[in-house]
Design a protein that fits this description.
By secondary structure, the chain is an alpha/beta fold. It contains 44 helices and 14 strands. Helices cover about 60% and strands about 5% of the residues.
C-alpha cells in the first residue's frame, strides 16, 4: 500500500525477524538498545501485564542500578512518544505491577502466524489439505529471519527460540501435506536444505526419505536414513524413531510407502486407561455460613444434566469476601457425587507480582493426571491439546483460584461437557466463554451475628446485642474482617464488645483513604496487630518474607534465629487471633500455616515499616539457608552422601534436629511435598542477591526435578539462578547452573542445546579448577558422544570423568560413568569388560544405598546378558528391575522394562508371555499419551501375534504422528535411563 494512502489502523508490528514497526507514513525508527528491548518484550506479551521487575531483569543481565525502575519509566515514556509521533495508534498503559501493550487484532505478525496455523489445522481436519498448505506456507512466510534477530538480549532468547520452533513445526506440517498431495518432486530441494540445517530433526528426515522414495530414488532415501542413524544411537529402546525405522523397512522390502503411510492422516487415538485421580481441593471450612442462593446457582451450572459444553462458574468478590472459601465449599459439595475422576486446583496468583503462566499450570495438571515430565510437550498449544485429550470423557472439576484475566483462564478450560471449572477472581471475567458470573456478597446481619457467636460465644453476644450489631455494621459483613475481630475478642474475654466497636471505628477513620472493603480489613488487622506483644509483631512481619503457599513451623525459628526445638510454639499467638491460619498437619505431626493474601500484604507492609533492611536481609538468608540445609540432607539420604552434586559456600540455617529426622524419613517424598516452597525459596534468593544460596539450592533441587519429571521447575529455577550468578560475577555458580541445564536438555532430548551449555560450563570449571564440576560435564558430554555414535570420543570423556570423580572421592559419580561406559564395551563385544564395570558399579550402590543407580545398572546387566545370549538370566534380571521401577513410580521405566521382557521372552520362544508383557507395555504407553512409543510396541506385538497365529489381532503400526516430536524421540528422565 502506498504510504500516503496508509491509515493508522494499518500500522503493523513485526518480531518474526528483526523488530520492526510500520506506521501510516512508513517504517518507524525505534531507538536501538533499551527501547527496542522493551518494545520486543511488550510485544511478546502483548495484551498481558508485564511487571516492571521483569523488564528490569530483561534489560540488565548483571546487577541492575538503583535507578533501574526510574529508567524503565523513562524508556516506556520515550517509546510511547516515538510511536505516537509517527502516527502509530498505541496503547501502553500503566497497570500494576508494570505495563500493558494493547494491540488491535491482526497488527502483530506473531498473532497472525498463530491464527493462520490454527485455521490450517481446522482445514486439515476437514480434508482440505491444499488450502491448508497455502495457509501454512503463508504463516511461515511471515518470518524474515530468526525471531528478534539483531536484538542481542539473552533474556528474550528463550521465548524467541520457542517461536522459531513453532515455525519449524509449521514447516514440517505443510511439507507432510505436500507429500499427501503427491508433490514430492517440488519439495525435495527444500527439504534437503532443511535437513542439512536441522540434522537431528527426525520428522524432517522422514519427509525427505518419503519424498525421495516417491520420486523413485530409493538408494538416496536409504542413504538419508543411514546418515541420520550415524547421528543417533540405540539407547534403551531409543534408536532412530519408529517412523524412520518403519520407513527404512518398507523401502527395503519394496512396499508402497507413499500409499501406506498416509502422511496427512492423524495417528488413530486409543482410549486412555484412567489411573490417576487427583484430589487437590483445599480443605472445606467447618463453620461455613451463608451464600446458599449463590451456591445453588453455581451447582446448577457445574452439574446441570442438560449441559452441552463445559460448565464454568466465575466467583467474583472483593478482598476479604471469602471467594476461595466459597469455591472450596462448592467444590466439596459437588465433587464426590459428580466428579469422581478427581479435582484439580491451582492458585493462579492473579493479585501477586507474577501471575502463574497457563503453560506452567498445564504442566502441573498433566503431571497430576499421570503424564511423566519428559513426555509433557514444551509448547502451550501442545500442552492444551494433551490436557483436553486426557480430560475428554472424564468427570473432573477444575478450580482456578485468584485469576487475573480471561487469557490466563482460557487455555485451562477442558473441552468436554463432562468436566466443570470453578474460577475465583476480583474481576468479572466476562470474556471466558460460557461462564456464569456469581458475586460473593458480604454476610447479612443475622449470618454475621451467627459467625460472631460461634467464635466468642452466643452468651457474650446476647449480653451486648446493640454493640454486637454495631460491630457487624462496622466490619461491613466481610467474613475475614469479622473473624479477625472475633478472634481478638476471644483472646480478650474481659473486653466489652462496645470497646471493640469504638477501637475499630477509630482505626477505620485513620485509614479512611482506602477503599471500603480494604479499609475494613486493614482496620481489623491493624487493631489486632497493635494488640500483639513486640515479639509476636516482629514474627508476624518476618513471616511475610516467605513466598511459598504454606509455612512450615521451623520457619518461625529461622526468621527469628531462634534455635528452639519447638518453633511452632512461637506461632500460636498469631493463630489465636486469626492473623495466621493452620493449613494442614504434616505426617510428622507438625502444623503448617498460611496467610490470607491480604494479610500477607499487610505483614510485608509492617515489615518494611518496622524492621531494618539489614535485619530483613539476614532473615531471608536464614530462611533460604534452612531450605538448603533440608534439601542437602535429603539428597545425602537418597544418594548415600554428597555425591554427583555441587555445593556452594552459602550459610545454612539448621532446622530442629527432631524435625529433620521425622520429615526426612522419606527424603524424596518430603522434597515432593515441598516442591512449591523450594522453588519459591530459589526465586527469593535470586531476588535478594543471595547468589551462592540460590544456585546451590537450585542444583540440589534437581534431585527432585529429575526423579519426578518437574522439568518446567528445573528450567525456571535455573534461569533465575543463572541471572543471580552472572550478576554477582560468580563463575563457579554459573558453571554449576549451566552444567545442570545441560542435563535438563538431555532429559528433553535437546542434544544440540545440551552440548552448547555443557561446553560453556566445562570451560568455566576449568578456569576455577573444580574436579567434580569437570567430571559432571564430561560425563554428560560422553553420553552425548555415545548417542551420536562417537564411541571413541565417549570413552575418552568417560575416562577423564572417572579421573575427576576419583579426585573428590565421588564414588557414585564413578559408578554412573562405569555403567554408561559398559554399554560401549558390550556393543563392541567386550562382554567381560562390560561385566567388570557393572559389577564394580553395583558394589558401590550396595555400599552407598543409592537405589536409583542400582536400578539403572541392573537393567544394563540385563542388556549385557541378552547380548551374551543369556536370555533366561536376562528375563530374571529385567523382572527384578520391573519391580524396582514400579516401586519408585517410574512409569517411563516401567514401559521400557515391560518391552524388554516382551522382547527377551520372544527370543526364548515364549510367545504367549511375550504377548502379555508387550500388551502391558502398550497400555503404559497409551496411558501417558506416548503415541510414538506405543507405535513401536505395536510393531513388536504384531510379530509376536503372527508367531501365535493370531496376526489378525495385531494393531497396525503407526508411521505418522502429525504435529511434532514424540516421547520416543526424547530422552526421558527415569531411573533406568542414561
Amino acid at each position: 500500500m502506498d504510504a500516503a494512502l496508509r491509515r493508522p489502523e494499518d500500522s503493523v508490528y513485526r518480531i518474526l525477524g528483526p523488530v520492526e514497526v510500520e506506521g501510516p507514513s512508513g517504517p518507524v525508527r525505534i531507538t536501538p538498545g533499551r527501547q527496542q528491548v522493551v518494545l520486543a518484550l511488550l510485544l511478546m506479551e502483548a495484551n498481558q501485564v508485564v511487571s516492571t521487575e521483569h523488564i528490569v531483569d530483561t534489560l540488565w543481565d548483571e546487577l541492575p542500578p538503583d535507578t533501574a525502575r526510574t529508567q524503565v519509566q523513562i524508556c516506556v515514556s520515550r517509546l510511547r512518544k516515538s510511536l505516537t509521533d509517527a502516527g502509530v495508534p498505541v496503547t501502553i498503559t500503566t497497570r500494576p505491577p508494570g505495563y500493558q501493550l494493547r494491540l488491535v487484532a491482526g497488527t502483530l505478525d506473531m498473532h497472525v502466524f498463530a491464527r493462520k496455523v490454527t485455521e490450517a489445522r481446522v482445514l486439515v481436519k476437514e480434508g482440505r489439505a491444499a488450502e491448508a498448505v497455502g495457509l501454512l506456507r503463508a504463516a511461515v512466510g511471515l518470518w524474515r529471519g530468526p525471531c528478534l534477530s539483531g536484538l542481542p538480549n539473552r533474556a528474550l532468547r528463550t521465548k524467541a527460540l520457542r517461536l522459531d520452533e513453532e515455525r519449524l513445526t509449521a514447516t514440517e506440517d505443510y511439507l507432510e501435506l505436500e507429500l499427501e498431495l503427491r508433490r514430492h518432486h517440488q519439495i525435495v530441494g527444500e527439504v534437503t536444505r532443511l535437513v542439512h540445517e536441522n540434522p537431528l530433526r527426525e520428522r524432517l528426515r522422514a519427509v525427505l526419505m518419503l519424498a525421495l522414495h516417491q520420486a523413485g530414488r530409493q538408494a538416496e532415501a536409504l542413504e538419508v536414513y543411514r546418515t541420520g542413524r550415524r547421528l543417533l544411537v540405540e539407547e534403551l529402546g531409543l534408536e532412530p524413531g519408529e517412523r524412520l525405522r518403519l520407513l527404512e523397512s518398507a523401502i527395503l522390502s519394496g512396499d508402497a510407502v507413499g500409499d501406506a503411510v498416509e502422511p496427512g492422516k492423524q495417528a488413530e487415538a486409543v482410549p486412555v486407561r484412567w489411573t490417576q485421580h487427583p484430589r487437590q481441593l483445599p480443605a472445606d471450612t467447618a463453620d461455613f455460613i451463608g451464600h446458599e442462593d449463590l451456591i445453588r446457582t453455581a451447582e446448577s451450572v457445574l452439574v446441570g444434566k442438560d449441559r452441552r459444553a463445559v460448565g464454568v462458574v466465575v466467583v467474583v468478590g472483593r478482598p476479604g469476601s471469602g471467594k476461595t472459601t466459597v469455591a472450596a465449599h462448592i467444590g466439596h459439595r459437588v465433587a464426590a457425587e459428580h466428579f469422581p475422576d478427581g479435582q484439580l486446583y491451582c492458585d493462579l496468583r492473579g493479585t501477586r507480582g507474577e501471575p502463574s503462566a497457563p503453560a506452567d499450570v498445564l504442566g502441573r495438571f498433566l503431571l497430576a493426571l499421570g503424564i511423566p515430565g519428559p513426555v509433557i510437550p514444551v509448547g502451550l498449544d501442545e500442552r492444551v491439546a494433551m490436557y483436553r485429550t486426557l480430560m475428554a470423557e472424564r468427570r473432573i472439576l477444575v478450580v482456578l483460584d485468584d485469576a487475573s484475566t480471561e487469557g490466563q483462564v482460557a487455555p485451562l478450560l477442558p473441552g468436554s461437557s463432562t468436566c466443570a471449572v470453578l474460577v475465583t477472581s476480583r474481576s468479572r471475567l466476562t470474556g471466558v466463554p460460557g461462564a456464569r458470573q456469581v458475586e460473593v456478597d458480604v454476610l447479612d446481619q443475622a449470618q454475621s451475628l451467627d459467625l460472631l457467636g460461634r467464635v466468642i460465644g452466643a452468651d457474650r453476644v446476647g449480653r451486648e446485642p446493640e454493640a454486637a450489631a454495631a460491630l457487624v455494621r462496622t466490619v461491613g459483613g466481610l467474613p475475614l474482617a469479622l473473624r479477625i475481630i472475633a478472634a481478638r475478642l476471644a483472646a480478650r474475654p474481659h473486653w466489652s464488645l462496645a470497646t471493640m466497636v469504638h477501637r475499630l471505628a477509630s482505626e477505620r477513620h485513620r485509614l479512611d483513604e482506602l477503599a471500603h472493603g480494604e479499609m475494613t480489613i486493614r482496620a481489623s488487622l491493624s487493631l489486632t496487630y497493635n494488640g500483639l506483644d513486640r515479639s509476636a509483631r516482629g514474627l508476624f512481619g518476618l513471616l511475610g518474607l516467605s513466598d511459598g503457599p504454606e509455612i512450615p513451623g521451623w520457619l518461625a525459628g529461622a526468621v527469628l534465629d531462634d534455635p528452639s526445638p519447638y518453633p511452632s510454639d512461637l506461632l500460636e499467638p498469631l493463630v489465636d487471633v486469626q492473623m495466621l491460619d493452620v493449613a494442614t498437619v504434616e505426617r510428622t505431626g507438625e502444623f503448617r500455616y498460611r496467610y490470607q493474601d491480604i494479610v500477607r500484604l499487610f505483614a510485608r507492609e509492617k515489615l518494611a515499616e518496622e524492621v531494618s533492611p539489614e535485619e530483613r536481609a539476614r532473615a531471608v538468608e536464614r530462611v533460604v539457608g534452612g531450605w538448603l540445609a533440608l534439601a542437602e540432607q535429603a539428597h545425602r539420604l537418597i544418594y548415600g552422601g554428597d555425591y554427583t552434586v555441587l555445593h556452594g559456600t552459602g550459610v545454612r540455617w539448621p532446622p530442629p534436629a527432631s524435625y529433620v529426622e521425622q520429615a526426612l524419613a522419606e527424603p524424596l517424598e518430603w522434597m515432593d511435598a515441598e516442591q512449591v516452597n523450594l522453588c519459591a525459596a530459589i526465586a527469593q534468593a535470586a531476588e535478594a542477591g543471595l547468589d551462592e544460596l540460590c544456585w546451590d539450592l537450585a542444583v540440589t533441587g534437581v534431585t527432585l526435578f529429575e526423579s519426578r519429571g518437574y522439568l518446567d521447575d528445573w528450567e525456571r529455577t535455573h534461569e533465575q539462578a543463572l541471572r543471580a550468578t552472572r550478576r554477582a560475577g560468580n563463575a563457579r555458580g554459573t558453571a554449576a547452573v549451566l552444567g545442570s541445564l545441560g542435563t535438563l536438555h538431555i532429559n528433553r532430548g535437546q542434544t544440540a542445546r545440551s552440548h552448547e551449555v555443557l561446553v560453556a560450563a566445562l570451560e568455566l570449571f576449568k578456569e576455577v579448577d573444580d574436579p567434580r564440576g569437570l567430571a559432571l560435564c564430561r560425563r554428560d558430554l560422553g553420553l552425548l558422544a555415545r548417542w551420536a555414535g562417537r564411541d571413541d570420543e565417549a570413552l575418552a570423556l568417560y575416562s577423564e570423568a572417572i579421573r575427576d570423580f576419583d579426585r573428590v572421592d565421588d564414588v557414585v559419580g564413578r559408578a554412573i560413568v562405569l555403567t554408561q561406559r559398559a554399554d560401549v564395551f558390550s556393543r563392541r563385544g567386550r562382554i567381560d569388560v562390560a561385566r567388570e564395570q557393572l559389577d564394580e558399579a553395583m558394589g558401590i550402590y550396595r555400599t552407598t544405598g543409592y537405589v536409583g543407580g542400582a536400578t539403572h545398572t541392573l537393567r544394563r546387566i540385563g542388556q549385557v546378558q541378552v547380548r551374551a545370549g543369556e536370555r533366561v538370566e536376562a528375563a530374571r534380571t529385567f523382572g527384578t528391575v520391573l519391580e524396582m521401577v514400579r516401586h519408585s513410580r517410574d512409569v517411563i521405566g516401567e514401559g521400557h522394562l515391560l518391552r524388554d521382557l516382551g522382547e527377551v521372552n520372544a527370543g526364548l520362544g515364549r510367545y504367549a508371555e511375550a504377548r502379555d508383557f508387550l500388551e502391558q507395555a502398550l497400555v503404559v504407553r497409551e496411558r501417558i499419551m506416548d503415541r510414538g512409543g506405543a507405535a513401536a510396541i505395536r510393531e513388536d506385538l504384531a510379530g509376536v501375534l503372527a508367531r501365535l497365529g493370531d496376526a489378525g489381532r495385531a494393531p497396525e503400526p503407526v508411521v505418522r504422528v502429525f504435529g511434532g516430536v514424540t516421547a520416543e524421540q526424547a530422552v526421558p528422565a527415569t531411573a533406568v535411563e542414561g
